């Protein structure tokens, strides 16, 4: 049940899926129901601060949303002027929606399965999840992704269109589909988290909100699926990564790599929670990639100083991950870990395998890591070239600035190096 | 991923355009309107603007005391920006497809054109060094 002491905005977000599911069940029209609930939420935002939160806020929202649905159906019926349908719908309108406040019929997971259906594009699934399950307004979502509100509205309506066209039923997936569908949900939540965490564009506060929202939604899934170790793994990964948020951006918006972060700024409480989740999940057996990534994040978070990092353990975890999925980013990170354990030359050797992988060969990340390892190996000249290469391919401004800065820093060292290597005294 | 699609042309292209028939112009305007609606309906639209003709274009540089020093003499071969679209899509390939679509805007006689459109990624991507 919702906590009545929550700020109204939080209360509404929490209630959104609990209001949407009975409306969808009742009227069997997901697209219209979702619009009706959104309108009810907006009405509450305007009314509740003035008039106070109703005694049963969920029932209030259900009532308002049902009324909107009734209006919608009436106008649809009028438009279609089809007696048969009119009679049927009128009958349906006469029945009240079972608010079932205490019956606790919770379909949040079901809604997530719908919004994250593989038939939707990534962008559509993200937008729809944030609105239908997260209870965010279209304007808030548009703001977070820095696109016009009309564009976001269009994405949401296209997502609903796809749901209608693929005739995705409002019911839990079958047992054999379930695992795969849950992976799709986790992937969308992961993308929302990343969008908030790694994006440098736009109003920082709003972007950070996306990470918070992803964590909140993943917690909801975890509450319902506490025995799924990958759900726990994803939640742990988010918490352990987000714990470093305050340390990874400098005062002028510049990026600070893990090794140089002020670790006293890390959120210890969040780290403890992430580690506790992981410690419960790991012994249960089926170890998936979110758990492994979380475990890697935990090893980093446990080191109070960069030089205390347990790289052999990280390397071992990346080796497991590499076996589990064919993802060039994992190969890249594996190479970094190998460099930390066996020296930069070993890491550079491993990077060569990626040069022929079209998914990453032309990307700045590969060049950035190569530059970093070359610098470690003492080959400053080559490192400068690769830092500049990486900068020319960067896709974010802070990242490009960081890479240019590394090249400039090494260039300024060079005269001394040359003196040393030429043997001039 | 956001991309900017920049439609460019030389000054002579504007002079040519000025000589188009009414039907050709109407067709072109209708195409552009439909194209804008298309990218809006697809949920990828971020922004668009068309620019004034390059006749009045100026290069501005800061003078000794920061005052604007203008130069309006350009070689015939100079490419000018005619207008731009910013779109938010999932891949570069999707951006190229949309760029090709607008590049084919109908020219004289309704023949699909091949107007050059420069496509560049906007630096609003993820900032994650992975280090």
Q: Could you list some keywords that capture this structure?
A:
heterodimer, A: 425 residues, mainly alpha, B: 131 residues, alpha+beta, Alpha-Beta Plaits, two-stranded antiparallel sheet, 3 helices, 29% strand
Q: Oligomeric form of this entry?
A: heterodimer
Strand content of chain B: 25-35%
Query: What spatial form of chain A do the alpha-carbon principal axes imply?
Result: elongated
Distance between the termini of chain B: 22 Å
| H/E element order of chain B | EHHEEEEHE
- Proportion of residues in helical segments of chain A: over 70%
Q: Would you tell me which CATH topology of chain B applies?
A: Alpha-Beta Plaits
Give me the count of strands of chain B: 6
CATH class of chain B: Alpha Beta
Chain pair forming the biggest interface: A-B, 42 and 22 residues
CATH architecture of chain B: 2-Layer Sandwich
Q: How many separate domains make up the residues of chain B?
A: 1
| SS element count, helices of chain A | 20
Total number of helical segments of chain B? 3
> How many strands, what sense, and barrel or not for the largest sheet of chain B?
4 strands, antiparallel
Mean pLDDT of chain A, as a whole number?
87
User: How would you state the average pLDDT of chain B, rounded?
Assistant: 91
How far apart are the termini of chain A?
77 Å
Strand order of the largest sheet of chain B: 2-5-1-6
Provide the gyration radius of chain A in Å.
Answer: 26 Å
Give start-end ranges of low-pLDDT stretches of chain B.
none
SSE arrangement:
The complex is a heterodimer of chains A (425) and B (131).
Chain A: H1 8-27, H2 30-51, H3 57-80, H4 83-94, H5 108-115, H6 122-133, H7 138-145, H8 149-165, H9 175-198, H10 204-224, H11 229-242, H12 245-248, H13 268-281, H14 289-302, H15 311-324, H16 328-342, H17 344-351, H18 364-376, H19 380-393, H20 397-422
Chain B: E1 2-10, H1 11-17, H2 22-41, E2 45-50, E3 59-62, E4 68-71, E5 79-88, H3 92-103, E6 117-121
Antiparallel strand pairs in B: 1-5, 1-6, 2-5, 3-4
């Amino acid at each position: 049940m919702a906590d009545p002491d929550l700020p109204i905005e939080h209360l509404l977000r929490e209630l959104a899926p609990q209001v949407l599911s009975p409306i969808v069940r009742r009227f069997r029209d997901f697209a219209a129901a979702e619009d009706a609930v959104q309108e009810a939420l907006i009405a509450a935002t305007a009314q509740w601060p003035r008039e106070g939160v109703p005694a049963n806020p969920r029932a209030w929202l259900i009532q308002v949303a049902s009324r909107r649905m009734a209006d919608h159906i009436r106008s649809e019926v009028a438009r279609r002027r089809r007696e048969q349908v009119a009679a049927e719908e009128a009958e349906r309108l006469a029945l009240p929606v079972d608010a079932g406040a205490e019956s606790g019929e919770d379909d949040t997971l079901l809604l997530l399965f719908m919004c994250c259906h593989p038939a939707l594009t990534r962008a559509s699934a993200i937008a729809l999840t944030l609105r239908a399950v997260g209870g965010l307004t279209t304007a808030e979502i548009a703001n977070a992704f820095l696109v016009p509100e009309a564009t976001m509205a269009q994405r949401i309506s296209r997502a609903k269109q796809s749901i209608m066209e693929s005739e995705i039923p409002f019911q839990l997936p079958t047992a054999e589909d379930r695992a795969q569908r849950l992976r799709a949900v986790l992937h969308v939540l992961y993308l929302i988290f990343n969008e908030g965490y790694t994006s440098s564009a736009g109003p920082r506060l709003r972007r950070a909100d996306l990470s918070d929202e992803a964590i909140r939604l993943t917690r909801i899934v975890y509450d319902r699926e506490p025995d799924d170790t990958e759900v726990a793994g994803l939640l742990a990964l988010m918490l352990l990564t987000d714990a470093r948020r305050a340390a990874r951006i400098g005062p002028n918006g510049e990026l600070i790599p893990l090794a140089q972060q002020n670790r006293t700024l890390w959120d210890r409480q969040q780290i403890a929670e992430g580690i506790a989740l992981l410690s419960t999940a790991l012994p249960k057996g089926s170890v998936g990639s979110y758990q492994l990534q979380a475990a890697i994040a935990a090893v980093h978070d446990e080191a109070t100083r960069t030089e205390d990092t347990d790289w052999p353990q990280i390397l071992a975890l990346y080796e497991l991950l590499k076996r589990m999925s064919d993802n060039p980013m994992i190969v890249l990170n594996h190479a970094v870990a190998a460099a930390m354990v066996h020296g930069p030359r070993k890491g550079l050797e491993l990077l060569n395998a990626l040069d022929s992988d079209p998914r990453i060969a032309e990307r700045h990340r590969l060049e950035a890591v190569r530059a970093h390892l070359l610098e470690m190996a003492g080959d400053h000249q080559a490192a400068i070239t690769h830092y500049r290469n990486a900068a020319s391919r960067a896709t974010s401004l802070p990242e490009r600035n960081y890479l240019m800065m590394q090249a400039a820093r090494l260039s300024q060292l060079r005269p001394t190096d040359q003196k040393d290597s030429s043997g001039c005294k | 991923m956001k991309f900017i699609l920049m439609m460019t042309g030389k000054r002579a292209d504007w002079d040519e355009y000025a000589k188009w028939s009414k039907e050709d112009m109407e067709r072109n305007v209708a195409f552009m309107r439909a194209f804008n609606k298309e990218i809006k309906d697809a949920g990828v639209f971020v922004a668009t603007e068309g620019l004034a003709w390059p006749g009045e274009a100026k290069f501005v540089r800061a003078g000794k005391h920061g005052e604007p020093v203008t130069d309006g003499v350009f070689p015939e071969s100079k490419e000018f920006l005619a207008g731009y679209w910013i779109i938010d899509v999932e891949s570069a390939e999707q951006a190229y497809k949309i760029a090709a679509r607008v590049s084919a805007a109908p020219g004289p006689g309704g023949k699909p054109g091949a107007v050059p459109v420069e496509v560049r990624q906007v630096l609003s991507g993820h900032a994650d060094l992975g280090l």
